[in-house]
């Protein structure tokens, strides 16, 4: 046991030393990637050492190696759950919710009187607790992925709506006056000026929605789903005390969420390369 505790201490000291060395280097792409990787590996090593050193029950807190073994042995189950929860429930709800929010934001911008009616309704929907809405939507849309997509739509709609409305107002009066001097109508001004200026705000809403979509889909599966899905697997595995499989599902969710957010960030950089926040 003392050997594992010594391993945890040495891993922590080694990780700090490596990160201090990286911090003294001139900033570049490799050091920016290496620092979080080293920090993550250090945490895993310390986690392993503490669990082994204090002989913590694997039901309460599995060691990273135990989780890795279960992950490798359950790839078929994890893939089925990933497809059901992420690709069907979360992604479809994300596309529908963000798309609907964008269209309604354009309508609000085109017809300002709608702002007094639609934004309060959107705020009301955003304030609804997902724990309360999920079982209702499951009863309405069934136990398959459609009900999970409906929960995701509710969760991502308002952040996307508010950010898009705010972004469409980002262009200043002088820019809009210049477009009018060129005899540009509303739609041409929208496409040539206001939408490009709104892109940083729109991508803020899209990035917020990436995490909300995954959380909403998983939570919705707690209230009813077919015998597959990440939320279903987590709830049933907890009842079976298979905490290593629960942690494996958490790893899949973390990887999927990070990849989803990272993909949206890369798209943002390619679309808003002109914005000061994207310049080196």
Structure description:
The protein is mainly alpha-helical and 280 residues long. It folds into 2 domains: 2-56; 71-278, MetI-like fold, CATH 1.10.3720.10. Helix content is 81%, strand content 0%. The chain has 11 helices and no strands. It has helices spanning 2-24, 29-53, 64-73, 75-110, 115-127, 130-141, 145-168, 173-181, 186-221, 230-239, 243-271. Helix 3 (64-73) crosses helix 11 (243-271) and helix 4 (75-110) runs antiparallel to helix 9. The longest helix has 36 residues, at 75-110. It is flat and about 75 Å long. It starts with a helix and ends in a 9-residue tail after the last helix. The mean pLDDT is 82.
Topology diagram in text:
Blueprint: H1 2-24, H2 29-53, H3 64-73, H4 75-110, H5 115-127, H6 130-141, H7 145-168, H8 173-181, H9 186-221, H10 230-239, H11 243-271
Helix pairs in contact: 1-2, 3-11, 4-7, 4-9, 5-7, 6-7, 6-9, 7-9, 9-11, 10-11
Name its key features.
single chain; 280 residues; mainly alpha; MetI-like fold; 11 helices
The CATH topology annotation of the largest domain reads as: MetI-like fold
Q: Give the helix/strand class.
A: mainly alpha
What is the strand tally? 0
State the name of the first-level CATH class of the largest domain: Mainly Alpha
Largest sheet: none
In brief:
With about 280 residues, the protein is mainly α.
């Amino acid at each position: 046991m003392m050997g594992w505790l010594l391993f945890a201490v040495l891993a922590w000291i080694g990780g700090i030393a490596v990160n201090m060395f990286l911090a003294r280097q001139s900033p570049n792409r490799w050091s920016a990637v290496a620092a979080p990787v080293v920090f993550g590996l250090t945490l895993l090593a310390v986690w392993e050492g503490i669990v082994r050193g204090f002989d913590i029950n694997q039901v309460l807190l599995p060691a990273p190696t135990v989780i890795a073994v279960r992950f490798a042995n359950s790839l078929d189950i994890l893939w089925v759950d990933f497809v059901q929860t992420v690709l069907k429930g979360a992604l479809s709800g994300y596309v529908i919710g963000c798309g609907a929010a964008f269209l309604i934001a354009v309508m609000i911008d085109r017809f300002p009187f709608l702002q007094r009616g639609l934004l309060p309704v959107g705020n009301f929907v955003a304030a609804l607790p997902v724990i309360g809405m999920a079982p209702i939507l499951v009863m309405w849309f069934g136990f398959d992925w459609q009900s999970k997509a409906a929960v995701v739509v509710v969760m991502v709609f308002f952040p996307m709506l508010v950010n898009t409305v705010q972004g469409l107002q980002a262009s200043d009066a002088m820019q809009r006056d210049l477009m009018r001097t060129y005899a540009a109508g509303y739609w041409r001004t929208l496409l040539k000026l206001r939408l490009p200026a709104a892109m940083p705000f729109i991508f803020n809403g899209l990035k917020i929605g990436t995490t909300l979509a995954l959380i909403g889909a998983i939570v919705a599966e707690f209230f009813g789903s077919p015998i597959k899905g990440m939320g279903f697997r987590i709830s049933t595995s907890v009842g079976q005390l298979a905490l290593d499989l629960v942690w494996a599902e958490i790893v899949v969710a973390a990887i999927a969420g990070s990849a989803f957010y990272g993909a949206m960030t890369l798209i943002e950089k390619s679309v808003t390369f002109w914005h000061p926040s994207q310049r080196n």
